[in-house]
Amino acid sequence: MKLAAVDIGSNAIRLQITNVINYQGNINFKKLEYLRFPLRLGNDVFYHKNISDKNRRKFLKLMKAFKILIDLYEVDDYMVCATSAMRESENGRKIVEEVKEDIGLKIHIIDGNKEADLINKALGAYIDDKAYLHIDVGGGSTELNIYKDKNKIASKSFKIGSVRTMDSQEDPKVWKKMDKFIQENISEKQKITCIGTGGNINKIFELSKPSKNKRYLHIEKIQEIQHYLEGFTFEERVNVLNLNNDRADVIIPASKIYLHAMKAAKSKRMIVPDVGLKDGVMNLLYERNK
Q1: Considering only CA atoms, which of 5, 90, 6, 78 is closest in space to residue 45?
Q2: Whole-number average pLDDT of the chain
Q3: Are residues 74 and 192 in the same domain?
Q4: Dmax over Cα atoms in the chain, in whole Å?
Q5: What is the DSSP string of 50-86?
Q6: 46: domain range?
């Protein structure tokens, strides 16, 4: 069974095509194709409320290219999800209709709760009967989910993200709202472990040079990497640290969001499982096609 997931984010757009193999009762998800294109829709939307005509034309070309790949791989099922930039843009729905009519690709504009639910589908292997705060930082929004005894007990989406925060486009009150949500749902005596998802925390994890089979970071290490990154100019982060242009400018704002949530929860440790929205979509597609 071949499945495809497209994640239309605020900072970049991703396509993953996966072959699901059932061998002797064991299910294996084998990645066939992965593409990440740095189309930053968030810059348009968070400043001007609309996707510019230039980026609209790029977006249509990209969706056409993705549709060609989906057809070439003879995918059995697919799902295209658009998050905060598309759902907040005044012309987002019009562009979605244009893609459907001209290219034949159906795009789902999902809210923060649906986004969190999809990501959670990929986290099952990392959650046990302890208490967890899941922090997913995107370009335009941050989703927080709190788990206890393997059950999600609270969830909320906040209009704060790496692109939106980069030039202080977020409402200053949102930080206090995030603190309030965490404090209302986590007791001071409760020991909680964080789970971090998103491209920026994965890059921070990579920069920490972890030992083999280690998938977690202590808060001190995240702070250390943040200070390390702040010691470089944007050009140095691109040319010395070899970060992509669209990663080099958002990774520090993103690190501040992760650290803010961890400190509010009084958490000292974060698991970094390297899963995201596209992985949750894959799980959803598999469940409805198995």
Answers
A1: 90
A2: 93
A3: no
A4: 56
A5: S--HHHHHHHHHHHHHHHHHHHHTT-SEEEEEE-HHH
A6: 2-111
Distance between CA 19 and CA 1 in Å, rounded? 6
80 falls within a domain = yes
Confidence of residue 270 (pLDDT cuts 50, 70, 90): very high
Q: Are strands 151-158 and 142-148 parallel, antiparallel or unpaired?
A: antiparallel
**Residue 170: pLDDT above 80?**
no
In this predicted model, what pLDDT tens digit does every residue of 119-166 receive, in sequence order?
Answer: 888 888 788 889 999 999 999 999 999 999 888 999 999 999 999 888
Question: Is the separation of the CB atoms in 144 and 163 below 8 Å?
Answer: no
Same structural domain, 43 and 158: no
Domain count, the chain: 2
Residue 142 · residue 158 · CB < 8 Å = yes
One-letter identity of residue 111: D
CA distance 132 to 265: 10
Domain boundary residue, one of 91, 111, 131: 111
Which of 45, 275, 258, 281 is closest to 142 using CA atoms? Answer: 258
241 vs 243: CA distance, rounded Å = 6
Is the model's pTM score more than 0.85?
Answer: yes
Q: Quote the distance between the C-alpha of residue 155 and its chain's center.
A: 16
The amino acid that residue 108 corresponds to is: H
Gyration radius (Cα) of the chain, Å: 19
Note whether residue 86 is domain-resident.
Answer: yes
- Which residue do the tokens 């829709």 mark? 41
Q: Residue length, the chain?
A: 290
